[in-house]
Design brief:
Four copies of one chain form a homotetramer. Chain A has ten helices and 13 strands. The first copy, chain A, is globular, with a radius of gyration of 18 Å. Chain A has one domain (12-331): Ribokinase (UDP-N-acetylmuramoyl-L-alanine:D-glutamate ligase), CATH 3.40.1190. Chain A has 332 residues and is α/β, with parallel strands linked by helices. In chain A, helix 5 (185-197) links the parallel strand 9 and strand 10. In chain A, the strands form two sheets. In chain A, strands 5-4-1-8-9-10-11-12-13 form a nine-stranded mixed β-sheet, with helices on both faces. A four-stranded mixed β-sheet of chain A has the order 3-2-6-7. In chain A, 35% of the residues lie in helices and 24% in strands. Chains in contact: A-B, A-D, B-C, C-D. Chain A binds chain B through residues 24, 27, 32-34, 36-41, 70-72, 74-75, 78-79, 96-98, 101, 103, 112, 114, 116, 118-119, and chain B through 24, 27, 32-34, 36-41, 70-72, 74-75, 78-79, 96-98, 101, 103, 112, 114, 116, 118-119.
Chain lengths: 332, 332, 332, 332
């Protein structure tokens, strides 16, 4: 790809850094948590989802994160290993933290999600855990923003991004902003600003860019101006997602385009961002153009939200291609 | 009953103080958490279990505790209200705590239980929440020991016990000791000692009495000596449970007896203590003898462990009576 | 003494449990902290003050507490050892706590006191530190209430009181209530109630007894009723101090009397309670009557507040006797 | 000055951000803390020292920081106001924090310093407190590194540096590294790296640059290489201090020189860095050359360490000039 340069001959297409946890999906659809009979169990967490997405498409992927030394920690690790994800960067914490768990209703909208993250294991990731030799094995480092929300994970994340830059690994930031995990938007914007400037590619939606501009351009809603600002530093590609309206893509070299969405009936409102990022990076690291990458990202997102979980609904390469073909035929 | 005196004309048979939370039971039996497909959802927590047990048997029961201001908090409250449990003493905490959740395998032994209790809502109970007028409405106050494990719940619990004594409400302590929630056994023994001395009835197993004697009689394994020590203060009845071997019951007036268990094939190793306490107090507050109460407790425990959840497997009066009749016929 | 029984042949007259720290007194009298040139340095803290008071009068005294592993910790220990105070129960904490420091103006009233107690060393005292063999060496254990204000010092204090009772050591509670160190008065009253019931002698002022009665008799201002309530349990002597009005003393055996104060011009408003307690216990453990003890306590308090520090202004036996003689002559 | 550009017409020469607290100096020199009779009281703290240094030389200076709502907080504010320091950026915290206090022996070396910083007020500074309009009033923003050691002060500091850059205020980082306040050197280096890159001028000693290079060039002791690295980003001037050996100064434009020290007999080992920074920035903002600035800094440092406090020993312009003249005559 012209805009960013992936090092040849690296063992891994991507290392994803951030949260791997347990997703518990309401067994009955369109039913309140109080009224369901139980939950189906899956591995989840933004970073784990992205790793699985790349892996499912045939990419080789590694992981940096932390889980608890308990049954859920072992489950998450076992599942990821079984998929073939490299876990050399996975830390097991036994200080009393707990693997993150998300309980979710299965509704297309107004979906109640209950998150158990008091003393979450993923945020115990430490700088000691970050090895330049590991980062050097991969073409990209994909960071999900939740990893920035608390120390010591925050420092570990920034260190990983710095190391990645030094060893020629392309850095991708998936903003993934959860307001409740931060003291104020302003505090968040400081670390996101630092992280964005350490990234070659920044992916977020309009609300997330609003947060990142809360100090420097409060109230701005203009994507062009936003992209301009973020491309002034080290960032080479800015992708601003706008839900139903698709995505706007801006490159440092002036190249710019829009991509619509693959419209489907959603079963759940989450997982789309993670599958988008996963398919995007898989495409780019396999020689695809930025346009193909964003298109594949959108298709993968559509496939994912029509499935019943995040990790398990990630498409294979065949499923992705079939989906796009069918969709295009139907559109004619 | 001769040994303790229940006030006549009280609206409630019991108020239970402690933990109400969510139990998530492995859908597949005899399978590791990592390998199950999901969880069945129930209301649980020692105190909630006891409240449901009494309610199911036909008793009138109230509750003092705290849940989070979220879907699980609403679920727990909704379920308890639906059963007919009075929730005037239930606090809703919105400081960031989370309703306690227990994930459990379904195995008769070596059963992995994963507890999410970092910043647990039940331990946010405060002295402000404890009303003598509420305690005065009940014949008994049943305290589960977990409520003593941290401030401010610890102070609220001790205050409730003091108020209860002052308004003539019989106080019952179900020891329910979880070592991991305490700094040391010695620290635990201090508060359990204070609580036991505020209680008319103390129920625990041998290991729990060992902890309570860790300072005053380290190493003692003699039930008679233990009972002697605990009956010297204000306590009138001491019940020492010994699993398969049944229970030993000691009264301040010298009365003393043993009660065997109702042997059944267990599906899970928990819930027995809570059903025992519930049936015991229900029997006593409905005019039964201590012998009947302990027998009913043992039967209820047997019924509960052969069921697939704690709250839902609590027997009704009819089920309890049928079970005992059948068991006795089979024994002949 | 008739009311309490001191064991003969014990090495120490008293062990004092609680806070030993540094007192920094404004160098210039009647001047705001902002305007003084500096501070004079003394050892202080309620428990240390009481220990020094007994020691200065010729009593043999030990100490249970904790200081930091730093220059102030070493200073406090060095000073106390030099006085001849036994420090077998002194713990040195190196977890990052700091020895308590109090900065005070030198004014008879409206005296600003600035206390540095964030992560205070004395509150790191642990149950592991409490040895029955040490407590058995002493006729009395004197507990200052601050030690109850936080865990793990709270548990260590309650354990020491329990051990003391078991080995025949007379237990004295000097209430020493600091509202800011407690969540609410009600929470405080719970632990003070437990501690009072473990004490043979309880010493406090009217406001402190108000706090202790906040649940059981809110609004009560009647000393007779208060004493009645506290003498119902294990407590044998209740001393209610009323500043300028002197003290009221109540015994379980019905004996009761009042003691006026020795009126002097005060240089500072603190230290009086600690010298009172010290002289009282010294007198009692040396065969004095309760009347003599309270009189000596009042005289020691008068001497102390007319001095320029707490520890250094504690009177020797000769100073105490001379003061009383002179005072009585002047009164005639 | 050629290397950095100070905006004309600004009301203040500098705003200093960081710690203002109380310094308590041992009254007797060459004596251990345990053995001194008391302490002399001064305002201190790196940032306050620098502000006073500039003010004493005749500069106009403002302050951003936080003190407690108590006698020491009022003392610090009163003193600074009296000097004529603008306190529009000073926050008063009443959440239970305490103004930082440092107790120090008066020895030229092996000087024990005891710091009370558990829940220190200065570290409660928040982003809400940082106003671009205030920063715009000043030619420079001087940040002392301690302000980066914990949240929320860390975020407030980074935000102030970002705002300053945007409004054309020259940013100066005085590294001021205290290892004990950080989890690891690596964690510290991440934030110092970010801060250095936001700074026009970075001042530190060799050990401090070692910490900042702990990830990027571990083990490097070569000042030239260090300066090279730090001048690659936005930084325009790097000053590496080497104690007795003087300072090495490196500019982005290639200009480079060394400056020896003004050798004097020190009474205390602290205060030199703060007076150096203060005199340096005062000289630069008053039209002096970088060489004059570093020379004035060294002279001010020499004057300060031969005095008996930090703030009070800061020289006036006359004292500084007289000192340099006399020193040069003596050297001939």
């Amino acid at each position: 790809m012209a805009q960013v340069n992936f090092k040849e001959g690296r063992e891994l297409d991507a290392i994803v850094l951030g949260r791997a946890g347990v997703d518990l999906y309401a067994r009955e659809a369109n039913t309140d948590i109080a009224d369901i009979s139980g939950f189906d169990k899956y591995v989840g967490g933004s970073a784990a989802n992205i790793a699985v997405a790349i892996n499912r498409l045939g990419g080789s992927v590694g992981f940096i994160g932390a889980v608890a030394d308990d049954a859920f920690g072992r489950y998450v690790q076992g599942y990821m290993e079984q998929q073939g994800i490299n876990l050399d960067g996975m830390m097991v914490d036994n200080s009393g933290s707990r693997t993150s768990v998300a309980f979710t209703e299965m509704k297309a909208s107004d979906c109640d999600v209950l998150i158990y993250r008091n003393n979450a294991s993923d945020l115990t990731l430490k700088t000691e855990q970050i090895k330049p030799t590991y980062l050097q094995k991969s073409k990209t480092l994909i960071v999900t923003g939740t990893a920035l929300s608390a120390s010591p994970s925050r420092e570990a994340t920034l260190l990983a991004m710095q190391h990645a830059r030094r060893v020629g690994t392309v850095v991708v930031l998936d903003v993934d902003y959860r307001p409740k995990t931060w003291r104020t938007d302003v505090d968040a914007s400081i670390y996101y600003g630092i992280a964005a400037n350490l990234s070659d590619i920044v992916i977020g939606n309009r609300e997330e860019f609003d947060m990142m501009e809360t100090v420097i351009a409060p109230g701005n809603q203009n994507d062009d101006e936003t992209a301009d600002r973020f491309l002034k530093g080290q960032t080479k590609i800015v992708i601003i997602k706008a839900g139903e309206l698709g995505s706007r893509v801006y490159c440092k070299d002036g190249h710019q385009f829009e991509q619509g969405i693959y419209k489907v009936k959603a079963k759940k409102p989450f997982g789309s961002g993670d599958s988008f990022a996963g398919a995007l990076i898989w495409t780019l690291t396999h020689g695809g153009s930025l346009e193909q990458a964003v298109s594949n990202g959108s298709a993968a997102a559509a496939i994912n939200v029509s499935g019943t979980s995040c990790t398990e609904a990630m498409p294979s390469r065949e499923e992705l291609e079939t989906f796009i073909t069918k969709f295009e035929q139907a559109e004619r």
